[in-house]
Amino acid sequence: MKSIMLFVVLTPLLLMASQNTLQYQGREGPVQLPVVANRITVMVDSSRFTNWESILSSDASIDPSKEPEKLWGGFYVVHLLNGVDPLTVIAHLNARPDVAFAYPVFSNPKGEDIYITNHVVVHFNDAVSLDQIDSIRSARGLIPVLTLFRNPRYQVFRLSAHDTALPLDIATEISVADMSVNSFPSFILPLKPNYNPNDTYWTNQWYFKNTGQFGGPADVDIDLDEAYDYPIVGTDTLLIAVLDDGFVAHPDFPWTRVAHAWDYSSIDTLNPYGDPDVTPYLLSGHGVAVTGIMAATTGNAAGLSGVVRPSERARIIAHKIFTDGLHSVPAPEWVVAKAIEDAVDLGAAVMSCSWSGSTPPGWYAIYDALTYADFYGTVVVFAAGNDTSSVNFPSNHPTVLAVGATDSLDHQWTYSNSGSELDVMAPSANIDGNWGNFWIIDRPGLSGYSSGSHGCGSVDPDYNCRFAGTSAACPQVAGIAALILLYRPDLIGQAARIREIICQSAEDQVGDAYDTPGWDQYYGWGRVNALRALVMSCIYCGDANNDGTIDIADAIYLMAYIFLAAPHRETVSTRKGLETPTVTEGLTFLTRCT
After folding, report:
1. How far apart, in whole angstroms, are the C-alpha atoms of residue 421 and residue 401?
2. 510 touches 532 (CB < 8 A)
3. H-only helix segments in 141-204
4. Strand stretches in 290-365, DSSP E
5. Residue 3 reports pLDDT greater than 50
6. Out of 305, 347, 414, 567, which residue is the most buried by the measure of CB atoms under 10 Å away?
């Protein structure tokens, strides 16, 4: 009965480390959460709410000049006057019948705001029975939301309205009672698309076929035109999941090629399941852009080419994880984790994520979701980030491909992140290292990147010429993974093998002096190459020169490949020097291409 009675009495703000810092017990120990001084979050009780004015005017500490800003799931950011104690304001608002929850805003180690929600995610250990879990939940008044990763002990709970306990306290109570593998409050993380515009007609797509048309040296590209010569036979399609800000049909990517679409950003208390409308309202259409880079319709005498050809063989799972509006924010981490899990369960062979997060707290469910994806063989590709720092989470997860960006001189792009978790690079920015000169399909009309300062003059507004960043690099690598799997469908489900092929077929020592032999922290294994990746995938079946027979010609072809431009070989199991992480129970942890 110890674990059940534990929840009968709970002291709010249990682990207050100081007036300005709270904490909870995380997987690796106490997690310090500095409280932001002039902002709080508030969710109203819809059954009793009349208007915001009555709430805002009820406390003189609230700044009346700033309107509440909508977050996710009914939460709003409320601004306070300078010098007031946010915890005092929170206690006052939580006593109001028309306020369901009021919480602090916290700061992560990078100084970014993170927002706590009225949810707790618990991965109970095997010693806790399902009946005990239900008793714990009932005694604490927690409302079950969903189960993650097909594991009945991995649960998301919601607090009852007007529960004054912080989710930090509940998560800590479970952790310190040794009932869980992991227990953590749900945060809205500072994930962000690695934005900026890009799009092109074939002769402008220098990153696919570079003849020096924009001033840089020729052949600074991914040799896509040569990879196109490898025929993709059969009629099977491949599912590629795109987790982003949504999708709309485009002349270069019709809706018939969308296999499944779901809006996870709309999941909240009133809408617990989300909905199928993935339109990026009031957003530029980052998801449209990255989808086109992977698989815009190729060979239709219009618009742009995508990495995958024949493009109709690629079908997209469009999972929207960013909320609508001028101040778009991501869904909480367990919602993003669910979007990853569902994409895997729908059969995604490849997953492309052109966004990045930050440091803990609040990443455990996404971490375990990526382990889940690897267990089921999904090749997951992430942008490394655009803030000139180390490789961001989730791209530093051991089983994903972390992709940095190079410019048209083959140098590391100015803003591209680097570090021990970087895997490969793909071309993105212009010769001068600035944003732009990467073309994308854009939201049709003037609602996308083509509006305002990102416009491209007389260019068709359904396209745009000013994209860049690791957001542009990531879908190229995801597209190469899809090409390999279309050419070698027998490798579907072998994510580690695909990572190995992509890393070991990358072109090494093509950058500046920092691009040292083998892996390095600035260029990873090198700039990806679609042709070489397909050649390496042929090595596994013997027909290296792709002539339909296995003979001496294959040996000659491989000799030329190896000695003229061989990938640098190294032991790949220990380069990163990371400890084996704790993973979801019952899943086998596979080695990444390190």
Report:
1. 9
2. no
3. 167-176
4. 314-320, 350-353, 355-356
5. no
6. 305
